[in-house]
Amino acid sequence: MINDIISLTNNVLWGDYQVLIYILVFAGIWFSLKLRFIQLRHFGYMFKVMKGSTQGDKSGISSYQALCTGLSARVGTGNLAGVAMAISLGGSGAVFWMWVIALLGMATGFAESILGQLYKVRDDHKEYRGGPAYYIRAGLNKPWLAVLFALCLFLGYGISFSAMQANTITDALNHTFELSPVYSGAVITFIAGIIVMGGLRSIARFAEFVVPFMGLAFILAAVTVTIINIQLVPGVLMDIINSAFGLNEAAAGALGAAIKNGIQRGLYSNEAGAGSVPHAAAGATPVPNHPVAQGYVQMLGVFIDTMVLCSCTAIVILLAQGNIDSEMEGIRITQNAMTYHMGMSGDMFVAIIITLFSFTSVVANYAYAESNLHLFKLDNIYGRTIYTLLYLGMVYWGANASLKEVWNMADMALGLMTVVNISAIMLLTPTIVNLTRDYQVKLKTTNQPEFKLADVKIQGKTETGVWS
User: Where does this one sit in the cell (predicted)?
Assistant: First the structure.
């Protein structure tokens, strides 16, 4: 019966009815219009706001660490296997629609990250906590809905997703290096345990070190492949555009598949609207000291994830078209394409990159779920110990298990999280618009806009002492 309920829910959210796609596209358009396409108007500023972003205080992490933590969760199998799946099912035109949904998703990510900052709280350890459950409770005064979101988050990010990412790592290592999942799973679990027991700051420091390295390594590889095949690039770009609108004779009947798969995989990859990244945004001490500053930071995260990293995967695959086994799926397509370009070292490179991409997601997922323990008054040594043991147990189990049913459960959890979060941020639109307007007005007179509660009309109330 439980499996039937999960299957029915997923069919509504992800399957035949595709409710989530419509909700997220609508949210992207809604916030793009309400914020007057801030992702385009202030495109350059989201890089500029990173100046001084390495500064933080003892209550939180720096904006740069929050960006890296957000990226560590966003960047995962979706960037390698998801892009390959989109192209195999929707053709090269799916890449264009992935770009479109990323541009729209930047506005959604901006909106939810602002709220994560505004409604954050300090826990007993004087650390910042926040996320959708917090702004639903404080901004909308709907504690029951906050609890529902937190439970879905624990089910998804706290348990299921980490198991799946661990499974991806052990599968890639076994395929390329013939390492037994029993041993590689044990190593993954042990290292993850060391990192997460240090809390959000430890996870942020790890992300700050690993994310730039793995991102730049992958970008460099893609740029190298592009330069070597530079004569093919104009044709690939034209094929993307023509296929996106069904202008190619071969793609004329596949327009719907291109749109559907491009949007679906783009949404899955950048997580804009899912309500995950606001947890990292809430933990930051932003520079300038204004909630909107963190909105720009996380908007940049959506751009890097999809417009940069997913595009790198797409160009590597498309430049190898005609030289890839058509029966391959997901990550195998990416590995096969990289092997075509780089020889056998390409297969090993992808295995190492997917290991890094997935492992950073494993530890970031812990931080997102752990931040909600405060909501249930469980952020004490007993609550954290029980949660940590459960999390590590799922990581090791996932490294060695067949995960079909867990995938279904995780899809349902992510889908319900997204529905709740999108509903919340839509209802909190007046606060988002007021905050953004306040920031932009102050930006005209100073480079460091300061947020004061008295200057902005907000819904609900923030925790006393967090914002003056």
Answer: Cell inner membrane; Cell membrane
